[in-house]
Amino acid sequence: MKEEMYELNEDMSSSSLYNNDLAPTKLKDRTWNTYNYTALWIGMAHCVPTYTMAGSLIALGMSWIQALLTITLGNLIVLIPMLLNSHPGAKYGISFPVFARASFGTKGANIVAILRAIVACGWFGINTFIGGSALNVLVSSLVPGFSHIGGNFQVAGLSLSAGITFMIFWAIEMMIIYKGMDIVKKFENWAAPLVMILALILLVWMVVSAKGFGPLLSTPSKFTNAGQFMKVFIPSLTGTVGFWATISLNIPDFTRFAKSQKQQMKGQAIGLPVTMTVFSAMGILITSASVILYGKSMWDPVEVISKFTNPVALLVGFFGIVVASLSVNIAANIVSPAYDFSNCYPKRISFKMGGLITGVIGILMMPWRLLADPSGYIFTWLGTYSGILGPIAAIIICDYWVCRKTKLNLKDLYSTTGEYSYTNGFNPRAIIALILGIVGALIGKIVPSLSGVSDYAWFVGFGLSFVIYLLLNRGKSVTSTSASPKEEVV
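-> C-alpha cells emitted (490 positions)
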C-alpha cells in the first residue's frame, strides 16, 4: 500500500495564522516510531485516574469483571475516532487546532480548540493535585511535622503543606513542557517502562503480603437484573469513552511527528486498550488485597503506599506515582491546550506560553473538588464533557474522511483568505452541527424527563452531529492538496 506524507512548500510565516509551533512538521523531523507511540500510551494510561476508575465502577455496584469489561469496551470504542483523527496529523504534519480549521474555519477552529483546552486544564489540575498529594506524603515521611505546617490554615480548601507540594509539582511540569516536544518524547520513553515495573512490584508485594487476591474478586455484582445493570453500565461506558475522548481529538498533536501511518497506528492499537485494561486490573487486585491487609478497600494508591513503614519502599512507591502523574499530565493535558491557546493568537502566544496558560487555569479550577466522590467523577465530569467532545469528533471526522476524502489544501490552512476562511473565518454548517449535537447530547441535564439521553452523551452527540454535518454538506467538492508529497511503502 502506498502512503503519502506532505510538507508545506511555501513560506507562510507572514500569515497571522502561522508560527513555528503551529507550522507543519517537516518530513525530516517526523521521527516517532511504534515504540514511541506505545510508550506514550503506556505513560498516559498508567496514571492514578485509570487506577481509580475501576474503583468508581465497583463503588457503583459492578463486580470486578463487569467493571473491567466496561473499561475495555470503552477503550476499544474510543480507539476508532483516535485512529481516524491520527491520520491527518501523520499525513500533513499538522496539530489539532490547525486540522480543525478545515472543518470549522480559520477562526471557528478556536471554538473547538478552547473547548478542548478547558477540559485539558481540568485534567491537568486533577493530575497535578494527585502528584502533589504523593509528593506531600513522601516529604511528610522524610520530614516529620511537614504535614502540620500552618496548622489549620488552608488555601482554597488545601492545607498549607498540600498547597506547597501542589505548586512544586506544578513547577516541575512547567519546566518540562518549556523544553518542547522532543523532551516530552524522551521523558515518555523512559517513564513508561519504569511506571509499569513499579506498578507490577506493588501488585506482587500486596498479593504476597495478603496471601491472596482478597475478597473483591469474589464479591458479586449488586445488580439483580439486566435493567438495574444497564442504568449504571451505559453512563459508565459513556464516562469511560469520555476518559480519552479528549486525546481522540488532539491526537494529531502527536502523530504529526510520526515516521509513517503504520507505525503510529500500530503503536496506539497496542498501547491504549491493552494498557488501560491491564492497569485497571492491577488497581482492582491491589485494592482487593488492601482489604485483607488494612481492613478496607483503598482505591487511592497514594493511601496504600502511605501505609508502608519502610522508608525505601515509601521513596520508591511515591517516586512511581510522581513519575506516572508527570507522564500523563505532560502528554495528555499540557501539549494539547498549549497548541490550542497558541492557535488563538499565533503571533503572540507560543507553545510555551500556551503551556503556562494551561497551568494557571488548572490551578484556578481547584481540581480537588472534582475528585470529591466517585459518582460525581463518572457521571458529572466525564459524562458531561464527553457530550461536548463527541460532536466535535463527529464533525472533523465527517469533514476529513467523508467530505474531503482525506484531501486538504495545506497552504490554505494558514491563509485568512483561502478556502477554509468560509464566512468571516467561520463555517456555519459546522457551528450548526456542533450546537445541535451538544444540545442533543446534554438535553437530559436540563429536561429531567430526558435524563436517560444524557447517559449516552458521547454517542448521541457524535451521531447527531455526524448526520447533520453530512446532510448540510451534500455535494461538497473534494479539495486539492497544495504541498510536496513523499510516498512511502507501508
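DSSP finds 18 helices and four strands in the chain.
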